Amino acid sequence: MAKKTIDQIDVAGKKVLMRVDFNVPLDDQQSITDDRRIRMALPSIKSVVDRGGRLILMSHLGRPKGDAGDSKFSLAPAAKRLGELLGSNVAFASDTVGDDAKAKVDAMGDGDVVVLENLRFNAGEKGGDADFAGELAAMADAYCNDAFGTCHRKDASMVAVPEAMAGKPRVVGHLVAKEIQYLSDAIGDPGRPFVAILGGAKVSDKINVINNLLGICDAVLIGGAMAYTFSLAEDGKVGGSLVEPDKVDLAKELIAKGGDKLHLPVDTHCGDDFSGDCNKKVVPAGEIPEGFEGLDIGPETAKKYADVIKSAKTVVWNGPMGVFEMAPFDEGTKAVAQAVADSDSVSIIGGGDSAAAVEQLGFSDKVSHVSTGGGASLAMLEGKAFAAVDLLDEA
Q: 270 pairs with which residues across the strands?
């Protein structure tokens, strides 16, 4: 699945249209509260700029309803921050394929950067519109995809634009290249034992992932609120825990399919209210009393899971073990994170809440790879093909 990267094409004097993920959080004053996604794109951006390329950046931000007048979704703050990080002027176009975008792109010199306004201000982006894609494609001599977080989508900028640029170089940026390397290698040729850790609230979100991983993993460890749906499937008592009663039959099928590979919690840390100050107790799995809800895996489960992780050669983790934002119900996630950090495994953290947990707990520098896309990494773990990646040039 190796793809040609931005470093492998000649960009001097050429216009490169790069899809990045500048979907950064903004406060009420339109100030960026976390610029990590912009910083993570810098290696690909500098690869073009430092070699005299002319870089056109496009991204979405938030979920505007095609309303170009909604300034709270503008990419202007992202363009400003990028200029500060690069220490050079970054031009911002007030539209995507309109007069301002075309004028700013036409005025570019070698090493210049233009950020286009939010792609989702155009209805054609979500609709995969060929005319909209054609206007974007006409701006540039080469295309680069460095937005892994949207690789599982079929938005115009991800699929229709590179399709419209057939015959021109179509490559991946550093971020996407790294994601493909880690995630596809983990699925295609994992070091063994291969252990998957799956948490989060809903079995329904992870059914296809669990199914796929049971076929290729040596152990699948289940935590988070979805464990209580599995508990129901085994006729356990779940008190007021978050469950999906309509997914009980599915959980039964997964238990039958998983056999010894599927590891479920043996105890539960529960509370009588969703707060750190509630009355707490640790009970055996399936014995949560009325008036209590499960909020974390218990200490025995954490120890059992840590023992499984200890011998792993490949670990994929998606979803926390409990309410990791709220002590003391962060203990299970902490124990698992510590075990992953201490293991000799190639460890891949699958974006979203797992990435936030690892970051918050201070383990992000002790794992091999933290994915930049929760939904995309899940889709890859399901074994799905990505049209946005498949149509790019082979290495």
A: 281, 294
